[in-house]
Amino acid sequence: MPISESMVQDIVQEVMAKMQIADAPAGKHGIFKDMNEAIEAAKASQKIVRKMSLDQREKIITCIRRKTKENAEILARMGVDETGMGNVGDKILKHHLVADKTPGTEDLSTTAWSGDRGLTLIEMGPFGVIGAITPCTNPSETILCNTIGMLAGGNTVVFNPHPAAIKTSIYAINLLNEASLESGGPDNIAVTVEKPTLETSNIMMKHKDIPLIAATGGPGVVTAVLSSGKRGIGAGAGNPPAVVDETADVRKAAQDIVNGCTFDNNLPCIAEKEIVAVASITDELMHYLVSENDCYLASKEEQDKLVETVLAGGKLNRKCVGRDARTLLSMIGVNAPANIRCIVFEGPKEHPLIATELMMPILGVVRAKDFDDAVEQAVWLEHGNRHSAHIHSKNIDNITKYAKAIDTAILVKNAPSYAALGFGGEGYCTFTIASRTGEGLTSASTFTKRRRCVMADSLCIR
Ligand code: NAD
Asked: For residue 136, is pLDDT > 60?
């Protein structure tokens, strides 16, 4: 059989990739001691990525998707072991979601105007090397998802991951570079430092070769990035309320809310953090939460103990974040039955376990006298984060009123919150929801620059 030019190229690429893998120290792809060196390596790699065809970028992304699935359980276990947060089963699902539903190069679209004066296009081009800061709550999920989108856009990426999740983050970054090398791409499409600190973060944020920074985390990091003088994508904190009105299927609402709230022990920033229920259905809702959805009804005394434990000295106790309900109850001396998934109680919106973004399966229920009151209380509880909110209602006017008042990047109706990530709902997945800066659910196109390409007086063939 004659060997075609493309077959020769494939063989050459494969051999080159194997040589690069052999050259690199095992398990060290993309990992540097020094932040400046890491940035230089990502810069060199971006020069290669920039010249690659969309098809070549897509080949690497396909390999990242496959490796993410193959390593889903390892990454899930590493994440739980290292951070002590979340649960393995849900983290496996989250990695599959990243692999299956993070958009690739198909997300880059072209806008065109064609007419008597020629053809003008808006094309989406790369920024270059992007800086990314990632949380400990979804460490590898965010790194893998960010890299797929950023690479699809023609960029490479320098991560400053949360120090509490550095081993898991390094594993994910190794995996990304192995996928690139195996697919004929360069090493260092994603890089980081062995020991990320605020200092390495500052070096990255101030570096002249980093034009864009994507921050996924709490309010502190988003403010730091937005003060850096660089363009910033700020995916910040939330405290999503779930409103239930008198037209809702209350039984299903209880089930959906508990499923969303307990997913990965409430770590996702989009997860239901409290309920605001219209008074006429509040008792019915409480009944379904406790009798059908494995919720533990905390007494006043237990709530007080939880406040002392979870918000010790008024500060969020990181040892409680992402723990399951039974562990949290055991911390206050309650030995709960094995089926318990969530802790519930009724309280005012100002209750510290309700007003604070806890990221643990504790669901306070606020009683509202009517729908307007429910909207007002939910808007207060969202704290102007403009992040996520949820509603269970069959009244379109109510849903519309709530959507306009709360003005969040995500609003899920009549489903668990994770439907917003494409899990049991339509649409793509992301783990970086740019709430503060308004891009909403990020994808490849978010990580590109718009460029106008103008051809005057030609190429209009209409
Ligand atoms: P965190 O804010 O403690 O840390 C996030 C990242 O920011 C880490 O890498 C940390 O090292 C870094 N960081 C923190 N302060 C910084 C500063 N001043 N300068 C530079 N870097 C800084 O958050 P976390 O506990 O890892 O994650 C949970 C938080 O992130 C929650 O508030 C959650 O809502 C939010 N979150 C938001 C999204 C989103 O898409 N909007 C996604 C996941 C998590």
From this structure: yes
**Nearest partner of 390 among 257, 255, 282, 248, judged by Cα:** 257
CB 304 within 8 A of CB 393: no
**What residue's CA is closest to ligand 1, atom 16?**
221
Q: Are residues 214 and 236 in contact, defined by beta-carbon separation less than 8 angstroms?
A: no
Nearest CA to ligand 1 atom 36: 217
180 CA → ligand 1 middle, Å: 28
133, 144, 356: residue to mutate for ligand 1 pocket, most atoms within 8 A of CB? 133
Q: Whole-angstrom Cα distance, residue 356 to residue 421? A: 23
Asked if residue 195 has its Cβ within 6 Å of ligand 1, the reply is: no
- Distance between CA atoms of 41 and 44, rounded to whole angstroms? 5
Indicate if ligand 1 lies below 6 Å from the C-beta of 392.
no
DSSP state of 217: S
**Cα–Cα nearest to 303, from 365, 382, 376, 240:** 365
Q: Which atom of ligand 1 is nearest to the CA of 357?
A: 32
Q: What is the pLDDT of residues 290-331, one digit of tens each?
A: 999 999 999 999 999 999 999 999 999 999 999 999 999 999
CA nearest neighbour of 130 among 117, 139, 121, 143: 143
First to last CA, the chain: 45
322 in contact with ligand 1, CB cutoff 6 A: no
Cα dihedral across residues 76, 79, 84, 85: positive or negative: negative
Average pLDDT over residues 56-76: 98
Three-state DSSP state, 453 = strand
Cα 307 to Cα 313: distance, rounded to the nearest angstrom = 9
**134, 221, 274: which to mutate for ligand 1, most atoms within 8 A of CB?**
221
Helix (H) or strand (E) holding 112: strand 111-115
Contact by Cβ (8 Å): 184, 56: yes
pLDDT in tens, 331-355: 999 999 999 999 999 999 999 999 9
Q: What is the DSSP letter of 310?
A: H
The predicted pLDDT at position 16 comes to 46
Question: For residues 86 and 211, is the Cβ–Cβ distance under 8 A?
Answer: no
Q: Give which of 347, 334, 333, 332 is closest to 286, Cα–Cα.
A: 347
Picking from 410, 416, 415, 350, the residue whose alpha carbon sits closest to that of residue 377 is 350
Residues 6+ apart with CB under 8 A from 278: 244, 245, 246, 368, 369, 370, 371, 374
Measured between alpha carbons, how far is 432 from 269 in angstroms, rounded to an integer? Answer: 9
